[in-house]
Each structure stands twice: as C-alpha cells, then as structure tokens.
C-alpha cells in the first residue's frame, strides 16, 4: 500500500492538501491518507466492477424469482455503502503496519533466490492460503452464536446480485478479508503483486454473486463460482469456499450446484415462466372456445 500512498502524496496530498510542514512519514498523516485512499478505492472498485457485472453478466431474469426481494438492488447498494467505511477502519490499521515496514512485502524480484519463480509461486500460495482461512472463518460465522449477530445480514439476499458482494455487517466483512492482510505478514510477497491480488479478490467477490452459473466443464470439480455461492445463499450449510471447492470437500460441506443439475434458480424461473405462459395460453383457448360456442348458439 505504500506504493499507492507515495503516488497519492506526490501528486495530490503534498501539493494540494497538507501543509508543507507536515512530514509525509508522520503516522497521523499516513493514517488519514490511508483512510481516504482505502475508502475511495473500495467505492470505485465496487461500483465500477459491480455495475459492469450487473449490466453485462448478470441474468436479470433471476429478478423474477420469488425469493428476490422488493427494491433488492437498492438495498444491497445502500448496505454496502454504509458498511465499507466501517470495514476500512481496522483494514487501515493493517495497511499502516505495512507502510511502516512491519510486513514481509518487498520491492525487487531479484531480492530472493529464484525471484521470478518465487513470485509466481507466491500468487498460488496466496490464493490457497486465503481460501483455506476464509473457509474456516466463513464457516465459523455460520455458528449459531455468531450468525444472527454478524453474518445473517449478508444472507438476506437469497438470490444475490453483484451489488450484494460487499453488503456485509462491517465486522463480518473485515473478518472475511483478514486472510488477505495476514498473508504478507507471514510470507514474502511483492508489493505490486499484492496490490494486483487485492484488486483481484474484490473482483472475484463480485463475480461469485453475479448469477452467471456457467463454468467450463473441466473446472467444475475445482472452482467455486457463482453457481456454488448462490446455492450457499439459498441452502445455508454448503459451499463456504472462496475460490476453490477443496476445503468444502475436506470439511464435508461441498454440494454440487443445483444449477449444474438442472434445478437451480434460473431453471426455476424458466419453469415458472413456462407454466405461466402455458396457463395463459390454456385460458386463452378456453375463452376462445367459449366465445365461439356463444357465437354459434342458435338464437331464440
């Protein structure tokens, strides 16, 4: 995060916001700057990618599902907008530790033996490490002592849209993001890679709420996508994973998505629409027969 902070200081904060006498490395200044950067970044990522997903990926026929709530999109957005500033408070405390040099983030690829190989390996390590911790944190949030207080607000959306991706109770949202921040304090990670992964995980969180249930056949056993996560919202006790199905399989909470079996929410909507059309057509034929019978009835 120090890369972003340095750019913001150079082009914006130092020349236009803060007095020249306030050092850039002052902890209070860094805290304020990180709060601004984190919130602006979170809102921009959320609205940009969730809006793209909503208009170009999300299947709007899902809004006809009986479990889709009235004014749901507006409610999802308002919930997210209100939660993100609170989520940013503990997040910034971790960013501050990174900026002040307490993490294992590094600048140069050549700082370690086999630098490029290690960089690529760190990406895979990051994904598997965070997926493992998120699984157990997420599953823990479903415990009856925590669920009602923390995680239930996110499960209001049984048929989520991309805008539900960040609609959490603030503590819930921070806890599920915590593995991303823990990783660079435990393992070496390149700063640019860390920023890229941070953006990626936000996009992925949006994608598993996007209602696009298509997954390449070869990846279906391994990737936890929107089909898996929508079933989690609807059925509660299954598919807690973030990226992969590995920990759900290990933990006994994996369920093959209903959408892959032909009885998912889209299938339900299509069936409901077909039945409605069939009933409407049947009533139309019946009315036509009655009308024709009336027309042919001999006059007295």
UniProtKB/TrEMBL annotation:
GO terms for biological process: cholesterol biosynthetic process via lathosterol; negative regulation of ferroptosis. GO terms for molecular function: delta7-sterol 5(6)-desaturase activity; iron ion binding. The keyword Transmembrane helix applies. It is found in: Membrane. GO terms for cellular component: endoplasmic reticulum membrane. Keywords: Membrane, Transmembrane, Transmembrane helix. The chain crosses the membrane at residues 32-57, 116-137. Residues 124-252 form the Fatty acid hydroxylase domain. Its main location: membrane. PANTHER family: STEROL DESATURASE (PTHR11863). This is Sterol-C5-desaturase. It comes from Sus scrofa (Pig).
């Amino acid at each position: 995060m120090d890369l972003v902070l340095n750019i913001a200081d150079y082009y914006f904060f130092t020349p236009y916001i803060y007095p020249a006498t306030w050092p850039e490395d002052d902890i209070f200044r860094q805290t304020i700057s990180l709060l601004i950067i984190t919130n602006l970044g979170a809102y921009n990522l959320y609205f940009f990618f969730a809006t793209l997903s909503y208009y170009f990926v999300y299947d709007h026929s899902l809004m006809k599902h009986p479990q889709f709530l009235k004014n749901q999109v507006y409610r999802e957005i308002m919930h997210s907008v209100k939660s993100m500033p609170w989520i940013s408070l503990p997040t910034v405390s971790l960013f501050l530790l990174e900026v002040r040099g307490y993490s294992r983030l590094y600048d140069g690829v050549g700082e370690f033996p086999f630098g490029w190989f290690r960089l690529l390996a760190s990406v895979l390590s990051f994904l598997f490490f965070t997926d493992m911790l998120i699984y157990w944190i997420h599953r823990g949030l479903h415990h009856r002592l925590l669920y009602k207080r923390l995680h239930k607000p996110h499960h209001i959306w049984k048929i989520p849209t991309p805008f539900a991706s960040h609609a959490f109770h603030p503590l819930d949202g921070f806890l599920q993001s915590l593995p991303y921040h823990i990783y660079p304090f435990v393992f070496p990670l390149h700063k640019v890679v860390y920023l890229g992964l941070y953006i990626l995980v936000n996009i992925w969180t949006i994608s598993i709420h996007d209602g696009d249930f298509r997954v390449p056949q070869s990846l279906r056993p391994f990737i936890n996508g929107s089909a898996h996560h929508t079933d989690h919202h609807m059925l509660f006790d299954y598919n807690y994973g973030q990226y992969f199905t590995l920990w759900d399989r290990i933990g006994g909470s994996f369920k093959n998505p209903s959408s892959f079996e032909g009885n998912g929410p889209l299938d339900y909507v299509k069936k409901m629409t077909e039945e409605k059309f069939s009933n409407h057509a049947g009533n139309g034929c019946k009315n036509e027969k009655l009308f024709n019978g009336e027309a042919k009835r001999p006059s007295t």
